[in-house]
Design goal:
Blueprint: H1 2-12, H2 21-39, E1 44-52, E2 65-71, E3 76-80, E4 83-87, E5 91-98, H3 103-117, E6 123-129, E7 137-142, H4 149-163, E8 185-188, E9 192-196, H5 206-211, E10 217-221, H6 226-238, E11 241-246
Parallel strand pairs: 1-4, 5-7, 7-8
Antiparallel strand pairs: 1-2, 2-5, 3-4, 6-11, 8-9, 9-10
Length: 263
Amino acid sequence: MDANEASLVAISKVPANAGHSLHKGTPREAFIRGFLEQHLPADVAIGTGEIIDATSKPGEQRNQFDIVIYRKNYPKLDFGGGVSGFLIESVIATIEVKSTLTEADLAQAISAARNAKALAPNVTSAFHSGYIPPKVLNYVVAYDGPAYIKTIYGWLNKIHDEIGVTNLDIPPGARLTTPSQSVDGIFVLNKGFLYFDNVPFGFATDEWRSANPSARWIFADTSSGNLLLLFLMLQTATANLSAKWLNPVPYLASFTVAGVNFG
């Protein structure tokens, strides 16, 4: 994984010679997608586009996500040009890919994450086994950024104050069932990571949490292990057994047909 991380960073230097920001960013998204498609389980797929729920309306303003990781056994809407509309019921995680992470980029990613987490899934469930994320997971992956992850942590708190993200407490005994109301993790390749401490594994211990009950985020400056940590989080979120299926009825609330006859 460290070799893959170094390879992604090295390859990203090629499109960095382009003269337009769009041309710099699009190849990087393809590299990340290529890595994910080669390493994630076969029952999930990778796409680009919007996420909807049963209350979404055609044509309304929505966030577009660089990468959407979704389960294949759910329908999706094809908008053309490789862009799709994904039902929230199918989405496991999103990833925003940035060439160089800035405070403005992070603010946009946090806003998009809040919107995604506000969508309401409608499923019929029979049983599940293993870790099930409490909400859709929202990650940011950057090829470059500030010299220290603590700078990103400072941005995070500032943005939360500005847009009113206040409900980030993790109640005792409910760590795995408490969703982040913001992004779930930020990974700057070859530089470090930051993540919300509601995952089944990680670097914090129960003893540390007891001694620091108000702590919510774990971060570190590290030149390696970032891609591995992201992969482990995605693998954990997808490696579960869940017998559930889409309840389409809420999506059909406005579907009517005139002149129906019964015989």
